[in-house]
């Protein structure tokens, strides 16, 4: 068998097993349905018509299961007492009811398979599902009673008549009483159905036509597998057995009705979603790869002739490229000469620029030399006064303007305004006072304020400020023109003096 499989290049045979959520989906009129997990396994066959496409079929056995639970329900209908030869009203109160349901189906898939060279694949199509068996196992507590109009008494529920001590046995002989944990198993008959099916995953190829598929699958029943019956044809969940009252019957909710003339379930749709592993034997895709190699061998002679023609063309192209290269070399030499001239021009430009910078530095040195006597006089004046014990030497700010410019600059500061220029912040109050006096001598409206913990600083400090300006732009222009020697000046609102 294995030899015949390996000889079939276009065919692929496989075995698979899968599992996951595999359930019977339905909506009961009372109680709750819950989904269960189950399995499936089977054999498959695929025929490839191209390296990417094939058709797949096979046989698989699929299991579907679900659970139904109901806390409490009451069933009432007219029954016949053969011993008393009269009709009575039979009532059964069902509680703590649980029913486990299982369906086994033989499925025949008809699928289109698409695969890639790197190993991804997908399958889609339909499956014909034929039910093989169905079993419902139920368990619950049943409280049965009977009302007889002739005696106006409901047996077991009330003590409407005098009965001997063995009355309870008499009630149970008639099927009345509390029966806890009663178990029953029923066989179900389901209808055939069609499933919409999809599968996708990876195909791992090994030598000699052996492959392993790993995938996820999804099967969804398109039809109702519950046999259609009218409500009048359905028995009650609890059936009174007139011939043998003690052995009353309990039916599956799939094949039963409630006392209010309504079926428990009217439609069942199987569904499965899970993972699958498939072992396959057969060449499949490799056949087309081998056939492609044979075709390449058959075209070898034509390819050689084509290569000879291309060789001649390449030689002609090489000669043309050599001529172009010679032309390019000449052009490169011209560009190198131009680059050399450009570098020489850059050097001349840099030398001229350096000469201008040196002249500017000399002018700055001369300016500082002219201002040095004024700075020395200010230092001498401050050193002649009696310093505060905490006073630290302070370098006076040199004037950057002539005496004739001071009135114009002083007019830019007003007695009132929202903006000020902060010149410095110092620890000693005496130093702040010295700075204020120095600024006032220059004609500026300077003042100092005490502030605690300003910004990231901790402790008490003194701010030295010049004000006041109506606009922020006025304050900025004033500082740039007159306070350039104070590197840390900045603008602030007047209201933030002590903040």
Number of domains: 3
pLDDT averaged over residues: 83
Task: Measure the end-to-end span.
Answer: 97 Å
The structural class is: alpha+beta
Helix fraction bin: 25-40%
Instruction: Please give the order of strands in the largest beta sheet.
Output: 1-3-4-5-6-9-10-13
Q: Total number of helical segments?
A: 7
Calculate Rg over CA atoms. Answer: 52 Å
Report on the biggest sheet: 8 strands, antiparallel, barrel
* Number of extended strands: 17
Binned strand content: 35-45%
Residue runs with pLDDT of under 50 for 5 or more positions = 164-168, 385-413
Order of helices and strands: HEEEEEEEHEEEEEEHHHEHEEHE
Q: Tell me the overall shape.
A: flat
Write a brief structural summary.
With 499 residues, the chain is α+β, with helices and mostly antiparallel strands.
Can you put this structure into words, describing what you see?
This protein has helices spanning 2-7, 167-173, 285-298, 300-384, 406-411, 429-441, 472-482; strands at 11-25, 32-35, 37-48, 53-81, 86-115, 120-148, 153-155, 177-187, 193-205, 210-221, 238-239, 249-250, 269-281, 419-426, 446-452, 460-469, 490-493. With 499 residues, the protein is an alpha+beta fold. It has 3 domains: 2-293; 300-384; 403-496, Sporulation related repeat (Alpha-Beta Plaits, 2-Layer Sandwich), CATH 3.30.70.1070. The strands form 3 sheets. Strands 1-3-4-5-6-9-10-13 form an 8-stranded antiparallel barrel. β3 (37-48) and β4 form a beta hairpin. It is flat.
């Amino acid at each position: 068998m294995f030899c015949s499989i390996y000889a079939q290049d276009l065919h692929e045979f496989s075995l698979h097993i899968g599992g996951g959520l595999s359930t019977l989906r339905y909506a009961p009129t009372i109680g709750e349905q819950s989904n269960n997990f189950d399995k499936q396994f089977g054999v498959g066959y695929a025929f490839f018509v191209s390296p990417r496409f094939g058709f797949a079929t096979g046989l698989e056995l699929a299991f579907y299961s679900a659970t139904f639970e109901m806390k409490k329900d009451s069933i009432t209908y007219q029954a016949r007492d053969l011993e008393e030869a009269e009709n009575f009203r039979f009532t059964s109160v069902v509680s703590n009811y649980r029913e486990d349901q299982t369906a086994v189906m033989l499925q025949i898939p008809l699928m289109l398979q698409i695969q890639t060279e790197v190993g991804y694949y997908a399958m889609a199509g339909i499956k014909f599902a034929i039910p093989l068996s169905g079993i419902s196992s139920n368990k619950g507590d049943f409280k049965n009673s009977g009302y007889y109009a002739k005696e106006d008494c409901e047996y077991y529920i009330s003590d409407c008549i005098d009965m001997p001590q063995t009355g309870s046995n008499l009630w149970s002989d008639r099927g009345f009483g509390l029966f806890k944990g009663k178990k029953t198993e029923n066989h179900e008959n389901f209808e055939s159905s069609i499933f919409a099916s999809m599968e996708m995953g990876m195909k791992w190829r090994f030598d000699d036509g052996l492959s392993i598929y790993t995938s996820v699958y999804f099967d969804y029943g398109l039809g109702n597998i519950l046999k259609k019956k009218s409500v009048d044809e359905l028995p009650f969940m609890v059936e009174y057995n007139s011939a043998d009252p003690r052995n009353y019957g309990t039916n599956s909710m799939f094949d039963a009705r409630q006392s209010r003339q309504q079926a428990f379930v009217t439609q069942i749709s199987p569904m499965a979603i899970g993972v699958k592993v498939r072992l396959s034997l057969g060449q499949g895709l490799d056949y087309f790869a081998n056939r492609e190699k044979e075709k390449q061998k058959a075209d070898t002679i034509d390819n050689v002739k084509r290569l000879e023609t291309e060789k001649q063309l390449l030689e002609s192209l090489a000669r043309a490229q050599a001529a172009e290269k010679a032309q390019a070399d000449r052009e490169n030499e011209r560009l190198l000469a131009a680059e050399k001239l450009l570098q020489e021009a850059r050097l001349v430009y840099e030398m001229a620029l350096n000469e201008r910078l040196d002249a500017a530095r000399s002018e700055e040195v001369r300016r500082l030399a002219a201002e040095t006597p004024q700075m020395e006089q200010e230092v001498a004046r401050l050193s002649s006064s009696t310093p505060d014990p905490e006073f630290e030497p302070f370098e006076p700010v040199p004037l950057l303007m002539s005496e004739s410019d001071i009135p114009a600059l002083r007019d830019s500061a007003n007695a009132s305004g929202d903006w000020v220029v902060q010149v410095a912040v110092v620890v000693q109050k005496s130093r702040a006072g010295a700075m204020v006096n120095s600024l006032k001598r220059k004609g500026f409206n300077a003042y100092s304020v005490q502030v605690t913990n300003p910004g990231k600083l901790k402790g008490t400090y003194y701010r030295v400020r010049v004000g006041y300006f109506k606009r922020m732009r006025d304050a900025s222009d004033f500082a740039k023109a007159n306070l350039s020697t104070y590197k840390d000046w900045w603008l602030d609102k007047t209201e933030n003096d002590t903040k």
